[in-house]
Amino acid sequence: MNARIAENLFVDLRDTVRPFGDDLLKLAPYSVDKVPYALDSDNSITVLYYRQDLFDKYKVPEAVETWEELLEHGERLAKDHKTSIGMVSTGDNGAIVNGFNQFLLQRGGGFFNASGELTLDSPEALEVLEFMTQGVRSGALLALPDPYGAACAAALKTGRLAATAMPNWYNAYGLQANVPDQKGVGGCAPCPASRAAATSAPPWAAPASPC
Predict the structure, then answer these.
(1) 132 closest CA partner among 74, 77, 80
(2) Tell me: the pLDDT tens digits for 136-167?
(3) pLDDT tens string 55-77
(4) Alpha-carbon distance 93 to 31, whole Å?
(5) In the 8-state DSSP scheme, what is residue 63?
(6) Strand-pair partners of 84
């Protein structure tokens, strides 16, 4: 954006952001000549929300290092207790894309490469699809229309869904809104890594803490 357009149309936010120092993760996309003119409404930090009571009851460790290990526990829970440890959206196009993209970004993939070419056939994308397919087939991942509607709320309330990877705002808009009676029995932790990837939890994952 031309600097004169920015300074004439938008408010200079330098005084607003200065107290936060380096705690603000993304300013560059909204800055011109290092002057910030906008802010993200949320950092959308993705974590693994889980039912501590169900993990204890079904002997699922809190510190699971890889998604593949979590799927193994999920397959056992699905077979023995009809409980899943994650979800895959199947109805809402936005939720479908966002769910897939969370796993894809963690593996170092993306929808486009640096040249702007579509990369949905990348090894990382195919690995994510295989992971999601395997999870749904085994019952470890529960197929739901979306993470917000009545079907998901019912799965959370009945214990059919014991964990799910969602951004930090899901605590308020998904969990507190749908299962307020479960306050105090839940937790959140960094997302596991992919066994095929050399990375640990994604850079947007928060430290483990009660939710």
Answers:
(1) 74
(2) 999 999 999 999 899 999 999 999 999 999 98
(3) 999 999 988 889 999 999 999 99
(4) 31
(5) -
(6) 161
